[in-house]
Specification:
By secondary structure, the protein is α+β, with helices and mostly antiparallel strands. It has helices spanning about 25-30, 40, 55-70, 70-80, and strands at about 5-10, 15-20, 45-55. It is globular, with a radius of gyration of 13 Å.
Length: about 100
């Protein structure tokens, strides 16, 4: 059964990016290599700060849309709740 992920990345200066994928490790690797997309590449957005898992692609896409509609303050509150020190959750991965 497929797994889907909604994730939030940031760069050193705090610029945020929200995305969705069916392979979080591969996608984060792409972002870290500068191949994740124009926006993330241009602003060097590579630090994984938050992610959620679901088996339902429609739920993942709906959650991504919901998060993208949130204010910056609300996204920061979500990150702070689960990851108050802004640790790169992918730092220990081999990506």
């Amino acid at each position: 059964m497929k797994q889907y992920y909604v994730y939030i990345l940031a760069n050193q200066s705090g610029t945020l990016y929200t995305g969705v994928t069916n392979d979080l490790t591969r996608r984060i690797h792409e972002h870290k290599q500068g191949k994740g997309g124009q926006f993330t590449s241009r602003y060097r957005i590579t630090r994984l700060l938050h992610f959620e898992e679901t088996r339902d692609i429609h739920a993942a896409l709906a959650r991504e849309k919901q998060l993208k509609g949130w204010t910056r303050a609300k996204k920061l509150e979500l990150i702070h709740t689960d990851n108050p020190k802004w640790v790169d959750l992918s730092a220990a991965w081999d990506v």
